[in-house]
């Protein structure tokens, strides 16, 4: 019996924070690739500490719905899941290459395949591009457009910026968009000055966040100048200093994100059948297809 557990941060304050996790779980559940699909949270129920007790499978795959490697993926989640013998060196990661580690969860006495976060997986690059397609309603968007991949950035976790730069570089290599830039909220180059970083008249802004919350719904729109007060709303696109900005909102809300979760599980040895192809097809942008 094959089980998938998706773990995410969640929020006591924002009930919408967990919505993407539930949506992606539903998408994966519909493929039938796993006998059961569970969700667990740090700030909501079921808690990380409890979720494995709800799982019946003898092959358990845990995928963290987090953007980068760091405190939660390296300390909090393994500790709360009680993964016996966990040591971050088992990943042998440079901040981007965490893959999977197979350990025994002490309280259920079963092996668990603990995967790296979705945000650093190569498939996330395609989700960012799909997000640009979704917000512009154009499956061929690219020519005469710039793309801003935006992250939080923080001196406390250098890996936060690595994920942003990794995906921005991969997209730039495809030569699809005229310009691709990695911008940050708390580091240079800052998203506040977005029009100064682009020559393109049109720029798609995709925040590399899992869920829409304070940063994506309030901070970024106001800092970029899409609005003075987020409660008053803004248009998409919105023109700021002569640049039309297509604000996409959190990348983690894009339906194709379910594909990245599946990719992580597949890399850890899960048997998926046609699930990957099914998810890619069912979450495609319809316009122009």
TrEMBL record:
This is Cobalamin (Vitamin B12) biosynthesis CbiX protein. It comes from the Archaea. The keyword Isomerase does not apply. The keyword Metal-binding applies. GO terms for molecular function: lyase activity; metal ion binding. GO terms for biological process: cobalamin biosynthetic process. Keywords: Cobalamin biosynthesis, Cobalt, Lyase, Metal-binding. InterPro entries: CbiX-like, Sirohydro_Cobaltochel/CbiX. It holds the Pfam family CbiX.
């Amino acid at each position: 019996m094959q089980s998938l557990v998706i773990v995410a941060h969640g929020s006591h304050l924002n009930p919408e924070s967990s919505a993407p996790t539930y949506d992606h779980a539903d998408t994966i559940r519909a493929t039938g690739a796993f006998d059961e699909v569970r969700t667990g949270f740090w700030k909501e129920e079921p808690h990380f500490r409890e979720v494995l007790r709800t799982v019946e499978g003898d092959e358990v795959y845990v995928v963290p719905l987090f953007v980068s490697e760091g405190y939660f993926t390296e300390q909090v989640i393994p500790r709360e899941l009680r993964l016996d013998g966990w040591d971050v060196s088992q990943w042998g990661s440079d901040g981007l290459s965490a893959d999977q580690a197979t350990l025994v969860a002490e309280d259920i006495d079963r092996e668990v395949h603990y995967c790296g976060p979705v945000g650093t997986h190569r498939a996330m690059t395609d989700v960012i591009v799909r997000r640009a397609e979704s917000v512009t309603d154009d499956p061929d968007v690219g020519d005469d457009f710039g793309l801003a991949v935006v992250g939080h950035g923080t001196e406390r976790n250098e890996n936060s910026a690595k994920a942003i730069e990794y995906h921005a570089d991969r997209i730039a290599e495809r030569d699809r968009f005229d310009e691709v830039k990695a911008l940050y909220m708390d580091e240079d180059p800052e998203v506040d000055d977005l029009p100064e970083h682009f020559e393109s008249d049109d720029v798609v802004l995709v925040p590399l966040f899992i869920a829409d919350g304070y940063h994506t719904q309030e901070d970024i729109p106001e800092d970029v100048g899409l609005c003075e007060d987020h409660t008053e709303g803004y248009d998409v696109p919105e023109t700021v200093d002569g640049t039309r900005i297509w604000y996409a909102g959190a990348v983690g809300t894009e339906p194709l994100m379910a594909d990245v979760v599946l990719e992580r599980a597949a890399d850890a040895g899960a048997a998926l059948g046609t699930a990957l192809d099914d998810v890619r097809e069912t979450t495609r942008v319809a316009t122009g297809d």
